[in-house]
Design a protein that fits this description.
alpha/beta; TIM Barrel; 8-stranded parallel beta barrel; 12 helices; 9 strands; about 50% helix; Luciferase-like_dom
Amino acid sequence: MINIPLSALEVAMVQTGTRAVDTLRDTAAFAQAMERLGYHRLWYAEHHHSPAIGAFPPVVLTAHAAALTSSIRLGSGGVLAPNHAPITMAEQFGTLAALHENRIDLGIGRGPGTFDEATARALRRGAGPATDEEYRGDIAATLSFLVDEVALGPLPEPWLLASSTAGAALAAELGLPIAVAHHIRPQNTLAVLERYRSAFSPSRWCEAPRVLVCVEALCAETEEEVARRGGPMAVVKAGLLKGRSETPFPTPEEAAAYPFTTEERQALEAFRAQQAVGTPGIVVHRLAQLADETGADELMLTSPVYDLHDRIRSYELIKQYIESTPTP
């Protein structure tokens, strides 16, 4: 059974046939639902110029959710360092931490948050991708500004997002908790964790290695409903396999009619096998297995499902199954 905290990642998918403002309303209702269900923390991811994901700044979503909730931890998962000045990240999340004491996280990542090169350059005022040294400097500067410049009171809890051994090495060097993107590159997870734990240096932020693993978790009462709810994201992933970044987030009905190739089906099934997808017992068993395999201190679940009610229901079923199953 699972005896570590469960958290949630909000990706803010913009559903076909809806508007971005509808997605924003859904994020508020979702935050309140995660608090009601007892999830430990809720993070928001940064994306730009995508037909499937809203371009909503994590700091703004965090502030809005914090005003609508009272206990769940909130923050970025992550805000992307190459797109922001370190002092700006420190000031924004330092202010949130002062306003909502002991509830704010600053999860920092490296990617541009877009597949479009022109958008990436616009975010960086025409500059190219950050080098390893620039990224390390941005993280170190952000942490320094939090302590030396902002000093508003309680600090946000910093995390470094990683899906490679290079990211793991940086988190270990700086003594930061690590959030591993198993939901993006599951093939890298164990190598990332081995590198992180073997090289970890204690710091003011973290005395010992601390690991959060993010996993795609999709749960429904029947396998047929699991397939229906998972169809829209499968179409988006199939588009990525073909090198298309402009795939909208379709309805379940549109997804059911999508002509997946044999190669796409095989790739999607291989990915699904490394996540936690199925009926409640199957999902919880897989989550427990992943927790054991990784030694994670916490699991963060992301459920890219078309309908808000269905998405909340997925998280609810997982919690209900865990709470109704006797501890051995």
